[in-house]
Write a structure and sequence with these properties.
single chain, 180 residues, mainly alpha, Zincin-like
């Protein structure tokens, strides 16, 4: 279509296609004062994907509700969805992401390999608690301008989890079970 349209038409098409990327590229300092990230109306597509909170061994929604009542009484997390992520064909080789949070969509995803008989409930609770903390502890901008999400305050709050040391030790001892 753009083969004979000239360079200006090609540039215009490029700007239209990548407009969302350029609009979203705001300075991090603008986001530092608030934990909420810039919400894009079309980001709700994530909610349409067929993920589930019920696994073979664990129900994430039950664990989330229990942690919310126990650790976030003053400022409970409202409107969040928690679900198992998509199963991959191959396990990762070098590192493993146990969970993620998409704050703009209020979705917490937990890696489906954690839905296993050998995973202790308290370890899964720790992973979920860690992701929940990201929604309430503000990020910081470091001296180099990089955004830091695991701040001193985050670390302090994370240590309040009742099986923190045990969970960290279990993670170190069992990480290889999740990798190729």
């Amino acid at each position: 279509m753009f083969l004979f349209s000239g360079l200006s038409a090609l540039r215009a098409a490029y700007r239209v296609i990548f407009a969302k990327v350029f609009d979203a590229a705001k300075p991090l300092s603008a986001m530092a004062s608030s934990k909420r990230k810039i919400a894009h109306p079309k980001a709700a597509l994530q909610r349409l994907l067929p993920f589930n909170h019920e696994g073979k061994y664990f129900d994430l929604k039950t664990i989330f509700s229990r942690l919310n009542a126990q650790y976030f009484r003053r400022t409970p997390l409202r409107g969040y969805t928690i679900e198992w992520g998509r199963r991959r064909k191959l396990a990762p080789k070098e590192y493993f992401v146990f969970g993620t949070i998409q704050e703009e969509d209020r979705i917490i995803r937990i890696h489906p390999r954690l839905d296993a008989a050998f995973v202790p409930t308290w370890f899964l609770e720790y992973v979920i608690y860690h992701e929940m903390l990201h929604s309430v502890v503000p990020d910081e901008i470091g001296p180099t301008g990089r955004r830091r999400v695991h701040t001193a305050e985050f670390d302090r709050r994370e240590r309040e989890f009742y099986f923190y040391r045990r969970a960290r030790r279990w993670e170190e001892e069992n990480l290889a079970r999740f990798l190729r």
